[in-house]
Amino acid sequence: MGENKHLRNRIRGLSIPLQEHLEKIALERSKEHPNIGLIAHWEKEVSAWQQEILRLEERLKRKR
Questions:
Q1: How far apart are alpha carbons 8 and 35 in whole angstroms?
Q2: CA separation (Å) from 49 to 27, 28, 34, 61?
Q3: Per the structure, how many domains does the chain have?
Q4: What is the pTM of this model?
Q5: What is the DSSP string of 12-38?
Q6: Which structural domain, as residue segments, surrounds residue 30?
Q7: Rounded to whole angstroms, how far apart are CA atoms 54 and 30?
Q8: Residue 12: CB partners within 8 Å, gap ≥ 6?
Q9: Cα separation of 45 and 40, whole Å?
Q10: CA-to-CA distance for 11 and 61, rounded, in angstroms?
Q11: Radius of gyration over alpha carbons of the chain, in Å?
Q12: pLDDT tens figures, 1-44
């Protein structure tokens, strides 16, 4: 598999759990007594995935 395809697949692969976590965060925040620790954990994961996606997108742009 070419590197560009690998990068695009990796970006897509990270986007799925990222979106799932954003939905979990929204659901947890809507509760009367949200679990702040759980939200913080999910937000750290979301942040890491967003940074990785940005890094991969930059690599993809340089390859074009």
A1: 34
A2: 20, 20, 23, 18
A3: 1
A4: 0.87
A5: HHHHHHHHHHHHHHHHHHTSSS--HHH
A6: 3-63
A7: 29
A8: none
A9: 9
A10: 13
A11: 15
A12: 688 999 999 999 999 999 999 999 999 999 999 999 999 999 99
N residues, the chain: 64
b/e map 12-25, b = 16+ CB within 10 Å:
eebeeebeebeeeb
Is residue 53 packed enough to be buried (19+ CB in 10 Å), middle (13-18) or exposed (0-12)?
A: middle
Q: Give, to the nearest 10 degrees, the angle between helix 3-29 and helix 36-63.
A: 160
User: What is the token pair recorded at 40?
Assistant: 């913080």
